[in-house]
């Protein structure tokens, strides 16, 4: 993967796969349903911060990239669970899916947030939320969920907990491009860190976790210091107008959930890669000389073309290697940008 002026993920195999798709030599994989959560809390100095994880550089997919907790929907996420907040039917209308699918996606969002960040959006009643998820018994349940030895419905039922769907807001929907071998139909949600709970790096796929202001994370990306995939940086930028976490949650209902799917077409001998509604990610990729062997890229048609492969493959929109959109939650050297103002941290944020 190469990077010229920013931290956008761009793997070297994309040009060949795009051309194969355009020539009818590649059959797109069916996207798997997935969910990821932008977990928020307000900084002491004011303004929201978002919890991000950096995928281990050893991951085969998206190594070194910053992302959010998330992962694939487990078929067992459709099992009956105690439910609070908007009904499954209301979620179905908001998301444009059937009620069973809506429940599965919301359950996946809550389950993956617990699995990867140790934060549980559930309580003993519709008006309460778990105050502490630390301790050996919680860790044992979390590990069993990760290992698929325990379903989320059984986990909630055994502990007498109600899923708090009202603590989530649907924010965006991105579908992995058709030329990718692993594809996900990923729903992005926003949620505030419940009072009394704290995040901890529960994911074996992450080597760092940070709380960082969206503006600072985006600036790190723009400088090429923080590696991200288009959905990650796009959702970060969409948080910047909001002054508090509660404002973000209140604004979720107005967010456009039309799926964003990358488009690739051949224009002469050049590939044009674009994400509708997100012009900053547009690329024009020529295939000439040495660049034809490695794959090439430009950013928004303005950067000079450089050979791919100058960084190890990386980047994430919450997608994990083989299991779904795990933020490292939710697959080269990771970016070590300067720490933002909240607190020093080698990964460009504050420790969870």
Q: Helicity, in percent?
A: 10-25%
Could you state the oligomeric state of the chains shown? single chain
Question: In angstroms, what separates the terminal alpha carbons?
Answer: 29 Å
Kindly estimate the percentage of residues that lie in beta strands according to DSSP.
15-25%
Specify the number of helices: 9
Overview features:
alpha+beta; 3-stranded mixed beta sheet; 9 helices; 16 strands
At a glance:
By secondary structure, the protein is an alpha+beta fold. It has nine helices and 16 strands.
Question: What would you note in describing this structure?
Answer:
This protein is α+β, with helices and mostly antiparallel strands and 352 residues long. It has nine helices and 16 strands. It has helices spanning 14-22, 88-95, 99-117, 136-146, 152-159, 214-222, 230-239, 245-251, 291-294, and strands at residues 32-42, 48-55, 66-67, 70-72, 83-84, 122-123, 162-164, 168-175, 184-192, 206-212, 260-261, 263-267, 270-275, 278-285, 296-297, 306-307. Strands 1, 2, 3, 4, 8, 9, 10 and 11 form an eight-stranded mixed β-sheet that branches. Strands 5-7-6 form a three-stranded mixed β-sheet, with no helix packed on it. α2 (88-95) packs across α3 and α6 crosses α7 (230-239). Residues 288-352 have low confidence and may be disordered.
Walk me through the topology.
Elements: H1 14-22, E1 32-42, E2 48-55, E3 66-67, E4 70-72, E5 83-84, H2 88-95, H3 99-117, E6 122-123, H4 136-146, H5 152-159, E7 162-164, E8 168-175, E9 184-192, E10 206-212, H6 214-222, H7 230-239, H8 245-251, E11 260-261, E12 263-267, E13 270-275, E14 278-285, H9 291-294, E15 296-297, E16 306-307
Parallel strand pairs: 1-9, 5-7, 8-11
Antiparallel strand pairs: 1-2, 1-4, 2-3, 2-10, 6-7, 8-9, 12-13, 13-14, 15-16
Helix pairs in contact: 2-3, 6-7
